[in-house]
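Q: My collaborator sent me two sequences in one message, no labels, and asked for predicted structures for both. Can we handle them in order? The first one she listed is below.
A: Yes, handling them in the order given. First sequence, followed by its structure tokens:
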Amino acid sequence: MTVSTEGTATVLPPGGPAASARPIPAARRRPGSRGTLLLLEAVVAFAAALVLPLLARGFDLDPLDRIAQVSGLAAIQLRFALVGLLFIAAVALALRLRQGRHFDLAARIASAAIAGLASGFVAAGAVVALHGTPWPMFGLNGDSGRIVEWANAVANGRPSGSPVYPPAPLHTLGYYAEWFRGGNTAYAFKDLQILGAAAFGPLVYLCWRMLLSPVRALAFGVAPAFALIDAYKPYSQTVLVLLVPVLVALVVSLGRSAAQGWRPLLAKGAGFGALLGLLFLTYSGWFLWSAAGVFFAALLYFPWRSGRLGRLKGAAFLGTTLAAFLVVAGRYLLVMLTEGQTTKDYNFRFDNFTDPAYYLMWRTDMPGKVGDWPPPGEYGGVGLFALVTFVCLGAAIWLGIRKPMVVTIAAMFISAWVMRMYIASHMYETQTVQLYTRTNNQLLYCGLLLCALVAHLVSQRMAARRAEAEAVAGPAAGPAGSRSSAGFPAREGAVIGSLCALLLLLGTVSSSMADRYMPAKENTYRILPWVSHTITEQDGSCPKYAPGGTCSKDGDQSWLSFIR
């Protein structure tokens, strides 16, 4: 894959963190065109994302019993590990067969499969959590109930209850309900919660593939995103983890625009605009918090010194992007600029009463039992995780100051930080919140990406030194996959080792994120599926595992006494 975060391109093999920067031999770079291979990766990723949810449908357990929940998570983890190891074994086998000709292809497929399996794990957890009830998480209460109601209105040609709410999720739910659920948007929302969580991994993987080779996309793009995966309202977090690589790719393309032909330049600009418009229609908050940083990065990498024609091409690229964005999302943008200004958020939540500089962990709107919050740290109240994040921010800028990927992500981090403090500083005056705590997610994701990029940049330098050493001394003789030069390990070993580590990392993270939705009667996100098991079904019966066989129209709301 051709990857560049500077003015010139670098050809990287679709391998892993220690991939060499030298050109790949033709036999290793093919078979198949780049478009065909990307399509193959997409098919594998989405297919893998459905494997675990489909298998979880066959589990026979009581989702309200904690032992059953643990057994369910272990059963998902076992299947996740076995399927993932099969793909890694195929990579190792490809290394030994036919002189490793298909090693890179096997690495592509394994990387895509692991990305899909990881989000499929969380989706399978949602299948277990909602086993025996047709209702979505939280039934018709809270955000879930409003989304179901508004989607039903939209599906029947009426305006939704909120003109500023992103229209894409409502229309998607409405159409899905008409096609697959006989117009029942409530039961359809359960399906989309599961499918939305499953699609998270493949979508973020494919977006990062615009910038990085397969294993690098998995390690440095997908892995950090799993701190944010959400099965309750999956679309908002998905937009964030997609928006970052799309905006980075936009800035990279802007920097290259002077050297491109007119037709591909305008086509690429239209593609970026349409994609950004679709993301804006799905969730717009991240655009507000990212705008200043992306504007700065665009100014920095605009082809100012490429002559009149280069500047014209840069302007044409941005103009085409803007035009396509307005075609797709212009009407909603106008609504946000008018009615959005008068929409006020007066709902003060748990995080609105804590130190605004703390963003590293979000306890959600239902924090449960908490002690000293934020958790006390060793250095002036700041913990080790925060120190590592800020050190990596500085190190990433130091190592990648000329790379638009690093600069754009750092600018988005700083932009979200400034917007967070600006909105929070006006809380007392306006008595409004305006969702500023949601910047937690953007700050955390960008911070994790910058930490990952430090490893990415260091590995690139190691690969470059290995290539230089081989050019001087020549590769050492040895069996395929065991060659080394001047003390540098073989690239193939790094790929297989990285895939093994990422499989275990993503399996552990996905299990934790799935566990937080296992039903329990407490003031955390676990109450969402618990309530779903206590709501009367539309035929008048109770869900299969309703506690004591009793249910009601709104479900068990006694948990509210925990927060009074």
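Q: And the one she listed second?
A: Here it is, processed independently of the first:
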Amino acid sequence: MDTSYKRITTSKLYIFIQVMLMGSWIAQLIKSDAYYVCYVLLGIIISICTYINITNGEVLFRNKHGRYIDVVINVFSVFFSCMVAFANYKIIAYTVIPEGYGITFDRLFVTLMTIIFFAGGYCAFWNVFILTYNKLTLICWKKRNEKLVNPTVCFWVSFILLVLSRVIVLYFSQYPGELTSDSITQVIQTKSGIYTNHHPFYHTMVIKLFMDLGMMLFNDINAAVATYSFFQILSTAFCFSFAVSTITRMGLPIESIIMIMMFFLLMPYHIMYAFTMWKDVMFGCFVLLLVTSIFRCMNNIGNNIINYIMLFISGIGTCLFRSNGFFAFIILTVLFWVLFGKKEIRIFLMFVVMILICFTLKHPVLKALKVAQPDTIESLSIPAQQIARVVYEGYELTESETILLRQVMDIDQIPDTYNAHISDPIKALVRTTGNQQLIEDNKFEYIKLYIMLGLKYPFAYARGWIDETRGYWNAGYEYWIWSNDVHEDNAFGIKRITNSDSFNRRLNEYLWLFRNVEILKLFLCIGLFIWVDIYMLIISLLRKDREGILASLPIFVVVCSLLVATPVFSEFRYIYAAFCTLPMVVVIALRPIEGKEDETRNG
């Protein structure tokens, strides 16, 4: 047989197999309980990429791009395929097969469908990533040679627009700001003087500072809350405008700068969060400031003294304003050393100093101030959910395992209490028993219990972990995003004041659109934004761009910290930092680097 004919036949067979696998994969995802609009968008992208790859002769999974490139593409193709498959395990695992087919048929069917599902996902993402590599020079934006837009003007235009728009919304519709039960808890601490670090103590101190200032100036509790809201409006506007100014200095086209400004200005979560009394809002802005200031320091953008001051402030804020922020910052420091070593020793040493300062502030200082740390079970959301899942699904426990669990919780209530998406009900069972000190005193016994149950029932553990975390790594899920009220159960007289009913109605209509119009839901999808962040990491890896890799890592490590400790499966505010930083991450990852594409292709 002619060799060329055989090659053409083989290629057509590969094309047919890939298309069938990917078609089956997308079809199966119709049954997903995630936002299907994400998968529709993904399907369109995959179809375009596959068509171009077929046209260009990229149909075989062969090593022809160099070992490094092929490893990156294959590893992340498997990674993304696994993410989608694991998050949608119920599609296959809970398929109803009519009676009479037998256990053997059931197992064969599930095994075959699982293989097809994983293979279809792999083919889909492989086509996207291989085209990304082949078109890197087209994907990355070109720096213009003409005179740049004045960065200072961009900063002030952005800052003024953001502040004015937020103040108008606050005054006419949302005065004095958004306060949930968590916010009221922190306000209670500022009034009682009895503090805990369950909600970060230093954020509570910021609330106290501005509420005290508001009371001093206006002698009104609502005005005191509004004073804090105004401070947060200024803070978020500054961080967003600082990023816009930095992007301007990088030579991004004016059209793209305006789009980024509009993203910060018009997205509903950026509007509502600007005056919501949560530590997560400040944390998200600190992470954006951290990404921006690191890049500025490494590239001598603007005033270096200001850059290092912003780096210091953002690092301290990242560590102190969320519990998982400190651990994420430590991991980021290690990764920074791996990427740059002694080349950026000044920044690395600053990271180390910030870690030492924050450790001192979080532990010796709080101990001296007699600020109580979160209780033991608060940091054990994932293990608690996994153990509860074993009991919930009716698996057998040994006598010793039962005794250990009964000492710290009423396991008979687990079947009626367990919620696959929220750990609070199980944590409440532990707190009700009041024996958390037993876990501390016998930690090795409980660690052994956790490990042994995991070895006996690994799939129950896997289901418990997936259901508790999948909102952060797969598409998007229907769950509340912003608060639109003041928590009424407060003894301070804080209440919502709407100064314009018509303005308030228009605002609520605007918010409603994003929750109900399918295409607008894309802007609310946690998983989609995390996928884009990882995609920027892949592009940076393909370009061998260490600064691009670093820019995408803060969100990646924040997500990793949530995967081991999140109490809620899809809490938007926990990952708000991703929605703050993504424009900066994208611009850094796609920035022009002279000779980098040629170097990548030769490497």
